[in-house]
Amino acid sequence: MIRCEDVHKNFGGVRAVDGATLELAAGAITGLIGPNGAGKTTLFNCVAGAFPPTSGRIFLDDEEITGLPPHELYDRGLLRTFQIAHEFGTLSVRDNLMMAAPDQAGETLWNAWFSPAKVRAEERAIREKADEVIEFLGIGHVAEERAGNLSGGQKKLLELGRTMMVDAKIVFLDEVGAGVNRTLLNTIGDAIVRLNEERGYTFCMIEHDMDFIGRLCDPVIVMAEGKVLMQGSAAEVMADERVIEAYLGHGVKNKAEVGA
């Protein structure tokens, strides 16, 4: 579904992404891991249109999307969440979801003045969809709560819910477990699996919690120093000496052998 070919992103003399080539298969939940500074979020930002790559090409369903802005990718069904949730803090959970629905008739002055019945009918439909999302995620008890008052885990659920208000093809999740307690993380994981299995969502997630990655993701892609280091199952990745060295430093294997 997503294909990156020799993607580079430079910031001055810093090569944040240095020739990353990878493919994300449709229908999969792919994990993207690596030590801090590996280039994971920068690659996410290139794919999701936050900024264009310095060089290289990016494809969605074999159509090149290199450098397209986020709103055009949004319309094509490519969405992302952030490590720090970006909610509308003064609006309710339900209103946050309703805001995410695309191409609303009421957003144009012409329709608001001359087609109020159409606007009201569409708003009812969007509200019904928001209520369906709320029920799916099990957050009915905070539906009328201001989003700014939610816990970190609840905000991550809300971000996931906003992707459900769009006909998403692929969702990029940036550290969905950051600042989330274990109970809510399990709830988020359950929702991701259900969206994948029941609604055909494709996911790619950056995450440092390897238990969470191991439960949800296959395959797992490892990045280090801006490049793709390897790809495999979670078990294969966690047992690979190159991955261990990338996370813990060169010479770890030799030190372990000396200690033994």
Automatic annotation (TrEMBL):
Sequence ranges assigned to domain ABC transporter in this UniProt record: 2-250
Tagged with keyword Nucleotide-binding: yes
Listed CDD domains: ABC_Mj1267_LivG_branched
Keywords for the protein's UniProt record, in alphabetical order: ATP-binding, Nucleotide-binding, Transport
Single GO MF annotation: ATP hydrolysis activity
InterPro entries: AAA+_ATPase, ABC_AA/LPS_Transport, ABC_transporter-like_ATP-bd, ABC_transporter-like_CS, BCA_ABC_TP_C, P-loop_NTPase
PROSITE patterns: ABC_TRANSPORTER_1, ABC_TRANSPORTER_2
Claim: ATP-binding is one of the keywords in the record: yes
Highest taxon, organism lineage: Bacteria
Pfam families membership: ABC_tran (PF00005), BCA_ABC_TP_C (PF12399)
Cellular compartments per GO CC: plasma membrane
The protein, known as: ABC transporter ATP-binding protein
Protein's organism: Pikeienuella piscinae
